[in-house]
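Dear support,

Our group has been running a series of protein-ligand predictions, and this particular one with WTA is the one our PI (initials K.S.) wants archived with full inputs and outputs. We had some confusion internally about which version of the output was final, so please treat the block below as the authoritative record. The input we submitted was:
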Amino acid sequence: GGTPDKLRHVESMSELPSGAGTISGISAVVLGESLADEEHDLIFPSAEFSASALVSSPKQYKEMYERSIKDPAGFWSEIADAFYWKEKWNPSEVCSENLDVSKGPVHISWFKGGKTNICYNAVDRNVEAGSGDKIAMYWEGNEPGQDGKLTYSELLEKVCQLANYLKSVGVGKGDAVIIYLPMLLELPIAMLACARIGAVHSVVFAGFSADSLAQRIVDCKPKLVLTCNAVKRGPKPILLKDIVDAALVESEKNGFSVGICLTYENQSVMKRQDTKWQVGRDVWWQDVVTNFPTKCDVEWVDAEDPLFLLYTSGSTGKPKGVMHTSGGYMVYTATTFKYAFDYKPTDIYWCTADCGWITGHSYVTYGPLLNGAAVLVFEGTPNYPDAGRCWDIVDKYKVSIFYTAPTLVRSLMRDGDEYVTRYSRKSLRVLGSVGEPINPSAWRWFYNVVGDSKCPISDTWWQTETGGFMMTPLPGAWPQKPGSATFPFFGVQPVIVDEKGQEIEGECSGYLCIKKSWPGAFRTLYGDHDRYETTYFKPFAGYYFTGDGCSRDKDGYHWLTGRVDDVINVSGHRIGTAEVESALVSHPQCAEAAVVGVEHEVKGQGIYAFVTLVDGVPYSEELRKSLIAKVRTQIGAFAAPDRIHWAPGLPKTRSGKIMRRILRKIAAKQLDELGDISTLADPGVVDQLIALKDC
Ligand code: WTA
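Confirmed final output from the archive:
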């Protein structure tokens, strides 16, 4: 329930950030069920929190924000100066960009001419500054009681050993390395080792299937694949090496063979003698890496040299290799981490994301380490052995910043408060949310129950493409509204546009775009700059188009409303409906498939698939299962459809385009909101679909 204390009553709202308009009509701030109109529910950081915050008032934010917009070069240069650069960037080229396709190719660059290394800045620099004995990473295994830790000096040694090994087998600057590992410390170590020698890492989430892994291998042609033999997720062992083996066979069929598969022996789960092995290709990590020196020279790279590729979903079946570069990404992830979580050197920071996603790149590995933070890496799942695991971990490590996803909040909320209140959680100071819009009731539960009504929630809106936070509360700066990502980060200019690409001001809703670049922006899609321009810069001339819908309320707060393209967000995992469709139609008995997102109590969105079978094939439970299995093997278990809806025909326009709008309404059971169906080639299919909804 709501705890209305610890809230400050405000007299004057004139201090709110620019673009915030004026907040009027709010005479008191009340938290809790009594307030029907959730949007006007303002929640203030305590005076004590604000007093020691990095940004402690709307006024201070406003000044910094305005400077960042008026003088981006000056603003970001000052911040970048705090890092180590082997060679300083060219002061006249802090930022150069063209986001307007009509004026030539789209390009973005930051700190041109500068030479640096993100691994050096994240690890060596902290050791050299005297923090060598500080814990860089705590590790909590799948089983309670299984744990480990590394100081910054130890981390440096591990990174150097692996970097030396990689060099010894010929991996060098610009070479791709695929990392397919669970949340062992070896995963961030591997990312850092690649960065140290200028190799380009591409982490593939270890929940992806062999087919998906193969697709990525064929696309980026890595010199080497890094994996481990097996891992346990909850009670279940997963043989990762078998998946990699299958992927390597598959990629060979598609014309690319990987020379080395460096395999970490995860001894507590599986012994090496039980692991399938291909002599000549497979190498045990423990046999080779530890023989290498613990010092390794840094490869100084250009600020615009690629740092990593991360494949993400778009509106076609082929995943996109989002490319980030070194200098701007470094400055941006470090700065966003620091301000959004109001980072203090004494903090113990835990982000529940996996390094297989962008959140794990920017806010498990790079952002926190660049700040010299102590980061907790968790291998397990939040409900194993029971739903209290997260709070057990919070108490064990005295976690002060806890960053997670709404889907986890909702699932733990369903398990009941007792799992939370059984633990003290008194170390918690700041909470964070990412991945999808957080619904106000989950926000409140997170705030009141988990955070004991004292921890601000940083609801960070951003994307794989943006590298770091784009909109987020700064915890000590201004009041929050449950479910709103509030205001832009420094240097970010969000605009809401209508269908024609016209900016709309004031209270409104429309398509969310960004004007001007920011240091953490992605620079291209690997091997497909055309797709980069077409997807992101052509829809609304002169802007980066995010793919998200957004509304702005009368107080200037931003409310993300979800994707407006064919991408869905399932448990915070981004999935292209086209990818699921292509997996379904690869089933020999499936003629056609159309996939839409449907509201799901825990996952945020669930996957709802309309499937047309090959003529004469009867629908059966067995077939339903085998269709779902097909998606699991082609993409991964996290993309398995929640519902299969038999569709003798799909609603199509006369030109053959599937009208997903109608399918979304049928899936949501909003049958009175189907709208105009007269333009369909055969309007009769709609009734047919509705009649079959329960098959
Ligand atoms: C959604 C994850 C609302 C959004 C970092 C975006 C959010 C997509 C939020 C990117 C948030 C992420 N509020 N929506 N706080 N955070 N999203 O690339 O639809 O996996 O476009 O990056 O997630 O997903 P991605």
